[in-house]
Design a protein that fits this description.
Helix content is 25%, strand content 21%. It is α+β, with helices and mostly antiparallel strands and 71 residues long. It starts with a helix and ends with a strand.
Length: 71
């Protein structure tokens, strides 16, 4: 699955979107355990992905959509 599909599978809200530089921005919201599970999944990515790095930043207070959107 892609990041948005994986996030939906574990019940998170938020979004994933491709950025012009080829990176992917993921903003998940939910309980700590599912967010941690998504972060671990992102460190490896889907089968055809090449993950070079994962940067984590606090986005407390960010407006999140209902469900998880892939953009």
């Amino acid at each position: 699955p892609d990041p948005a599909e994986r996030a939906r599978q574990i019940g998170l809200r938020g979004y994933a979107r491709n950025l012009p530089d080829g990176s992917v921005e993921v903003l998940p919201g939910g309980s700590a355990a599912p967010v941690a599970a998504l972060l671990e999944w992102l460190r490896h990515g889907p089968p055809l992905a090449r993950v070079e790095a994962v940067e984590v930043a606090d986005a407390a207070g960010a407006a999140l959509p209902e469900g998880f959107l892939g953009r």
